[in-house]
Specification:
single chain; 66 residues; alpha+beta; two-stranded antiparallel sheet; 2 helices; 21% strand; binds zinc ion
């Protein structure tokens, strides 16, 4: 998969120390989720746990599952 943020639709986001490839990828509910650092920390793209109602940013979820 080419580095492509699914959230802001940026192709090849600039690499950062935390995102050396420009994006991070994880699988959520059988779907690929690819995001750049900006979107990973953007509360607009937070995920909600359906059971607990808690929300976490993409970057926080990534840190939890990897
Ligand atoms: Zn993005």
């Amino acid at each position: 998969m080419a580095n492509h943020c699914s959230y802001c639709d940026t192709r090849r986001p600039a690499p950062t120390p935390n995102y050396p490839h420009g994006t991070r990828m994880m699988v959520i509910e059988d779907q690929w989720c690819e995001f750049c650092e900006k979107c990973g920390n953007d509360s607009n793209f937070s995920l909600t746990n359906a059971e607990t109602g808690e929300t976490a940013t993409l970057a926080e979820v990534y840190d939890l599952i990897t």
